[in-house]
Write a structure and sequence with these properties.
alpha+beta, 10-stranded mixed sheet, 3-stranded antiparallel sheet
């Protein structure tokens, strides 16, 4: 091999050696940016993490229309790996995707909501992909507990809001305020004929739940983290199955309209983001 050819080959090797690390570095940087972007979604919370929130103002399917803004706020410090990612009072922003009053011939009225971002205290906006997994009536402020729980913990309400109004198909929980920690008591509002068992902070009851509801309220009236459905809100039902689509969480009623009071409590659960 002549000297000119050797020099040419050596130069080619040097060029390829220099470009390979640069290419690998670019790929690694791109992967890192993708990971950082993913961590920003849901404020870094893992899929399936539950936290408690409350509506800022009332909503009515007869008055609302698709696109109307909806606002709520967290009622606890939401944590991930012992770090607060959304402080108590963080604003949650969403919109109405569907609203209809029950007309003649319609089986139900509907109200569908999507919450798609959180506004942190410093003004930073964080994308959210959450579903409303459970709901309960507003809790009296005087009896609200002031504890900060983790993202997977239970938080939010009091025995005064423990769902003793009538309901249908109940499978879930409320407890009598007069219940002992270990005894069995009869619910004073037991029109359904149910007894309430209160044992070390857990509770079950047949009162005040939507059809197909699971879980409910604990002995302090708080929505438990495994609850699904509507509690202490007569005539309403919740379908979170559409949360992965465009409609979001759908609340229905056999009445003329779906009405949610300001202060309505919601158990939010983070959803996995769809990959493109």
């Amino acid at each position: 091999m002549n000297p000119v050819t050797k020099i040419f080959l050596l130069a080619a090797v040097l060029v390829l050696g220099a470009s390979a690390p640069a290419s690998a570095q670019a790929e690694a940087q791109g992967a890192s940016q993708t990971t950082m972007s993913a961590d920003k979604t849901n404020a870094g919370l893992a899929s399936g993490a539950a936290f408690h929130a409350s509506l800022n103002s009332s909503l009515d399917s007869k008055k609302s229309k698709p696109g109307d803004a909806v606002a709520a706020h967290t009622t606890e410090n939401v944590k991930s790996q012992d770090k607060t990612v959304m402080p108590k009072g963080t604003k949650l922003v969403g919109h109405v995707t569907k609203a209809s009053a029950r007309a003649k011939g319609d089986p139900e009225s509907e109200l569908a909501l999507v919450f798609d971002r959180a506004v942190l205290k410093n003004g930073e906006e964080v994308p959210l992909h959450v579903a409303i997994q459970a709901m309960a009536a507003e809790q009296p402020a005087a009896s609200a507990p002031d504890s900060d729980l983790g993202a997977m913990g239970s938080a939010g309400s009091s025995a005064a809001g423990s769902g003793m109004s009538g309901g249908r198909g109940a499978v879930g929980g409320a407890t009598s305020a007069a219940g002992s920690a270990t005894g069995t008591v009869t619910n004073a509002a037991g029109a359904a004929g149910g007894t309430v068992n209160s044992t070390a902070g857990t509770a079950t009851s047949v009162a005040g739940s939507s059809r197909g509801a699971v879980g409910g309220l604990d002995s302090a009236g708080q929505i438990t983290s495994n609850s699904r459905g509507v509690f202490s809100m007569d005539g309403l039902n919740l379908n979170s199955a559409a949360s992965n689509g465009t409609e979001g969480s759908v609340i229905t009623s056999a009445g003329k309209n779906v009405h949610l009071d300001g202060g309505t409590r919601m158990l939010m659960v983070t959803q996995a983001t769809s990959s493109k």
